Amino acid sequence: MTENFRKLYAAAEGLRVYRAPGRVNLIGEHTDYNLGFVCPVALQLATYVAAAPSAGGKLRIHSEHHGETREFDAGAIAGLQPQQHWTDYPIGVAQQLVRAGFAIAPANLLIRSTVPEGSGLSSSAALEVSSALAFLNGRVLAPLELARLCQRAEREFVGMPCGIMDQYISVFGQENTAVEIDCRSLEHRDVRLPGGIAFMAVNTMVKHALAGSAYKERVAECAEAAARMQVASLRDATPEQVESAGLPDPVLRRARHVVTEDGRVERFIQAAARGDLAAMGKLLVESHRSLQHDYEVSCPELDFLVDAALGIPGVIGSRMTGGGFGGCTVTMLRPDAAVRFQTEIGRAYQKQFGVAPQIYECQPSTGAGEWKDVAAIPAAR
Ligand code: GLA
Questions:
Q1: Same domain, yes or no, for 108 and 238?
Q2: Using one digit for the tens of pLDDT, what is the confidence trace for 13-64?
Q3: CATH number reported for the structural domain that contains residue 135 in this entry
Q4: For residue 132, what are the domain limits?
Q5: Is the pTM of this model over 0.90?
Q6: Atom of ligand 1 minimally distant from the CA of 122
Q7: Which end of the chain has a smaller Cβ tally under 10 Å, C or N?
Q8: Whose C-alpha lies nearest to ligand 1, atom 8?
């Protein structure tokens, strides 16, 4: 990466590299913007931003993935408008940093990512958080503020009304454990996963056009349900309340998903604590069915992957993960079934849809920070 940096920008004086991971959410989907619970894992797949100060007042950003460099006046970031372009993520973050009192210094940036874009593994948050660290370049911002600032960039600049999960786990990820986040108090606790299980993400390789608009629609439907029940958010409603509130369809089914999903997160964590793998797997499948039928954010490709996974020996549970309408499923399985799982699911999906799905091992990794081992940055995907 240093070599690429020199090729692009001629010099690499003062180069530092920052890393922020993508994530896979084990359970708790579409609950974060309802201030409920989520249980994600930070992945080894991550975005790396190499940055070095530059002379001449310019901020240059190069993406290896897009093979493109864009140039901005470092002193004029505050006035920029979104361009519906990949630079909206780093520029949105830079603008939030300016608002928070951190001047953006002229610099050259090089972005490399191993988080597949559009895969539902949160390449956006990985880019936001790694860019924020590169802009800060050693200046200190409290971790929770970092996550919130990146979420604001996505909501206000990119225009996606997302919850806090992706940015939060990218900052607070832990090796060897999943993390339960309370999206209202913004506190978290480690969730030790029992031995004898592995998680694999399988990529449908599709992202349907509906993803953005339907997400906004779901956020609005949840707000409507909360308003009709006169609660601040769906976090405050019980399943009984939702069923008896006289909500119209589809608002009733949306609210039902959210409140039952919050319950599933708690039960999943309890099952993990007592090593009850069968109960964990069952909850994953229930979560998927609820997203498929009540929340309606799944798609034929995701449903196929879940159903196919459940027919493979050694699989304990499977569900879609992330926003939906494409992206990945996450499957819990016995480690010794992993090789067979990859072969069989790959073959079945290829036969059905004519595309080979990418498959990623979900090894819980650490959250964002400076990456000191500049020589050992993984090659881009
Ligand atoms: C996207 C959003 C998250 C969350 C998930 C669904 O990844 O960025 O905030 O809402 O969808 O759980």
A1: no
A2: 999 999 999 999 999 999 999 999 999 999 999 999 999 999 999 999 999 9
A3: 3.30.230.10
A4: 2-190+367-374
A5: yes
A6: 7
A7: C
A8: 162
Q: Which of 88, 166, 262, 294 is catalytic?
A: 166
Query: Is 93 in the same domain as 224?
Result: no
Interior angle at CA 115, CA 349 and CA 21, nearest 5: 130
| Pocket lined around ligand 1, Cβ cut-off 6 Å | 29-30, 32-33, 122, 162-163, 165-166, 322-323
Smallest CA separation from ligand 1 atom 2, residue: 162
Residues 134, 228 share a domain: no
Cα–Cα distance measured from residue 380 to residue 322, given in angstroms and rounded to the nearest whole number: 22
Indicate whether 380 belongs to any domain.
no
- SS3 of residue 160 by DSSP: coil
Residues 219 and 348 in one domain: yes
Work out how many domains the chain is built from and give that number.
2
341-353 pLDDT, tens per residue? Answer: 999 999 999 999 9
The DSSP secondary structure of 248-281, one letter per residue, reads: PTTHHHHHHHHHHHHHHHHHHHHHHHTT-HHHHH
Q: For ligand 1, pick from 38, 165, 288, 320 the residue to mutate: most ligand atoms within 8 Å of CB.
A: 165
Is 166 among the residues known to form the active site?
yes
The CATH number of the domain holding residue 212 is 3.30.70.890
